[in-house]
Amino acid sequence: YVRLRDRGLGCISCGSFLVLENAIGGGYDCGHFRSVGSAPHLRFDPRNAAGQCKQCNRYGAGMVVEYRKGLIDRHGVEFVELLESDQSPKHYT
């Protein structure tokens, strides 16, 4: 879903063009602003995910500072602050 939603927007961290490839794993990743390890309750929340180039997501440790700036540019500071303050566990049953 996120790969299709963010197609054409560019990498959330560095702005590079995201190419949707038919290769296994696609041309780019679905990166998470708050990591799955630190905020498992946001793992499937689309607000916490954005299209991110593989270089930033895998080899740049998520580029969290740049990711945050990209989220603010796209959605505003209030949006980001809501994500940062969300500590409520979700139960998927």
TrEMBL record:
Identification of the protein by name: Recombinase NinG
